[in-house]
Design a protein that fits this description.
307 residues, alpha/beta, UDP-N-acetylmuramoyl-L-alanine:D-glutamate ligase, 2 domains, 4-stranded mixed sheet, globular, binds adenosine-5'-triphosphate, binds 1-O-phosphono-beta-D-fructofuranose, Tagatose/fructose_Pkinase
Length: 307
């Protein structure tokens, strides 16, 4: 079974306008509410690509109800711990630039965290895949991420992790199947400015030395680099298109990659589908459709650049 975990989900309120004037009343041209949070975005994309999956984490209040309903409409199975608090709303402004305002989200009580761990302890079996994505909710620490990584390792479950510097590095010793830092996160991890492909490869390999089995470094509009556990390095191109809202592009890339890897075990095809999924989401409001992903796949080139 495929599971996603979002500790701090969000309703993304996407506002489209031409320009934002700080300190003034701004009226937008168009607004949409989308179920969000990194693991949730992955669940939606996995399902659209034909992979049944279970979305987990913590949800509460009217915003939590909205997310549950949206997931059910997508055909994703929600198995969230119900909390006595309101799931956050994150504001995503698409004007001449993209601006994101992410709320803190509710504090998660230890008893609720325990409920989620008990659930995973019971359901996980060898061969499952768990995708843990997004930041910690208030009340949670890197220890909770490490506990998930440890549990997956002990049950021979593939663990996919997309999170920030400290949460990501804390889990490497448990050998995640895949991590996906972007260039900025890679720079933060090593406290350097990574701006060439050679540097991406160098620091990506260092993450493998620390335990990551496969590493994708995503580079926004410049594509991505994949370092595989079998030693090859691949680079993906980006297709042409109009960027509507790049929120969730990274999540889509991970989900698109995993969907194809589960089907084929083939790295080049998986990177191609991951790259198409990332770009397709950047060219959409919310998460991409399968139709657009299939269309963009034809335009993406994968180049072997190492190994
Ligand atoms: N402007 C863009 N044009 C075309 N493709 C894009 C663009 N932005 C992202 N992509 C595709 O999506 C992939 C992931 O994007 P990005 O590197 O922005 O991830 P991220 O920083 O994790 O994003 P987010 O946190 O918003 O999900 C890129 O590697 C690329 O293939
Ligand atoms: O605060 P986090 O957990 O880092 O990120 C949350 C978030 O910005 O990530 C997704 C896009 O990747 C959005 O749907 C959501 O609002």
């Amino acid at each position: 079974m495929l599971y996603t975990i979002t500790f701090n989900p969000a309703v993304d309120l996407v506002m489209n306008t031409d320009v934002i004037h700080l300190g003034e009343l701004n009226r937008v041209k168009r607004d949409e509410y989308v179920a969000g949070g990194k693991g949730i975005n992955m669940s939606v994309l996995l399902k659209r690509l034909g992979h049944h999956n279970i979305a987990t984490g913590f949800l509460g209040g009217f915003s939590g109800d909205f997310i549950q309903k949206s997931l059910k409409e997508e055909g994703v199975q929600p198995e969230f711990v119900d909390i006595d608090a309101i799931t956050r709303i994150n504001v995503k402004i698409k004007a001449d630039q993209e601006t994101e305002i992410n709320a803190n989200g509710p504090v998660i009580q230890e008893k609720d965290i325990q409920k989620l761990f008990n659930y995973f302890n019971e359901v996980l079996v060898k061969g499952d895949t768990v995708l843990l994505a997004g930041n910690a909710a208030p009340g949670m620490t890197s220890d909770h991420y490490v506990k998930v990584a440890e549990l997956c390792a002990s049950k021979q479950v593939d663990f996919v992790l997309d999170s920030n510097k400290d949460l990501l590095t804390a889990c490497l010793v448990h050998k995640p199947f895949l991590i996906k830092p972007n260039a900025q996160e890679l720079s933060e991890i090593f406290n350097v400015k990574v701006d060439s492909i050679e540097e991406v490869i160098h620091y990506g390999k260092m993450l493998q030395e620390k335990g990551a089995r496969n590493v994708i470094v995503s580079l926004g509009g410049d594509g991505a680099v994949l370092l595989t556990e079998t030693g090859e390095v691949y680079q993906s191109s980006v297709p042409k298109g109009e960027v509507i809202n790049s929120v969730g592009a990274g999540d889509s890339m991970v989900a698109g990659f995993i969907a194809k890897y589960i089907e084929s075990g083939q790295y080049e095809d998986s990177l191609k589908q991951g790259a198409a999924s990332g770009s397709a989401t950047a060219f959409s409001v919310g998460i991409a459709t399968k139709e657009l992903i299939d269309q963009l796949i034809k335009e993406i080139e994968i180049k072997r650049i190492g190994g």
